[in-house]
């Protein structure tokens, strides 16, 4: 499905908060005409009002795509108003966490053409990563459309099955929060050792940002990059001895954190 088709038939966005807004911004920057976008949002931001999209107005009967970007807790109230669209050839693309394809099919009907997508918050600056997977009704063209739409906010990967989505949410969907906390922890450690709060935070942010970019751009594995900056018996090795402790180190801690994330996500999906 081309941007021309979406432009002619229309794109409906249900909820335009941070993630929906980031996706919309990417689409508009990519050339999608604002007048072809219909947004349903009871509390539109000033930025959304300035985009010239059609806001809280009459919706097309059979839009090309419906982007579902409301919070999972609001889904049961928000989706029924779009149920008629699910009976046609409209693609439903959802970026909400927690709700399974079966859950959407209960609300919209089992004939719905659906693609689940899980982006993360760096999508707001075009540096996100999104995992997508379609239900049995979704065609290869639907997946291509979802892929193209989500590329406007970063990289896209395709999953083999929906049951992989929980792990995606646990690793990349919520992952930015883990990294932000790492920055907080590094800055606090620097401050505890005598640096000013501002300097410690600047160093921590730049270090995490630079190391992340290096890891993404380098052909070497993260393990090799780590080894490259670790001299035997040196200062980095002393720190890594703590961080890599098999019982109390970062790896078992991260396993517990991701497991807790997945457990909570499954609770929300019930």
From TrEMBL:
Subcellular location: Cytoplasm
Ligand binding (NADP(+)): 14-19, 69-72
InterPro entries assigned to the protein according to its UniProt record, in alphabetical order: 6-PGluconate_DH-like_C_sf, NAD(P)-bd_dom_sf, P5C_Rdtase_cat_N, P5CR_dimer, Pyrroline-COOH_reductase
Keywords of the record: Amino-acid biosynthesis, Cytoplasm, NADP, Oxidoreductase, Proline biosynthesis
Metabolic or biological pathway: Amino-acid biosynthesis; L-proline biosynthesis; L-proline from L-glutamate 5-semialdehyde: step 1/1
Annotated segments matching region Disordered: 212-232
Known catalytic reactions: L-proline + NAD(+) = (S)-1-pyrroline-5-carboxylate + NADH + 2 H(+); L-proline + NADP(+) = (S)-1-pyrroline-5-carboxylate + NADPH + 2 H(+)
GO biological process: L-proline biosynthetic process
Signal peptide from the UniProt entry: none
Cross-referenced SUPFAM superfamilies: 6-phosphogluconate dehydrogenase C-terminal domain-like (SSF48179), NAD(P)-binding Rossmann-fold domains (SSF51735)
Residues where NADPH binds: 56
Domain Pyrroline-5-carboxylate reductase dimerisation residues, every copy: 162-268
Entry-linked Gene3D superfamilies: NAD(P)-binding Rossmann-like Domain (3.40.50.720), ProC C-terminal domain-like (1.10.3730.10)
Family: Belongs to the pyrroline-5-carboxylate reductase family.
PANTHER family in the cross-refs: PYRROLINE-5-CARBOXYLATE REDUCTASE, PYRROLINE-5-CARBOXYLATE REDUCTASE 3
NCBIfam families xref list: proC
Protein name: Pyrroline-5-carboxylate reductase
Organism: Thioclava dalianensis
GN (gene name): proC
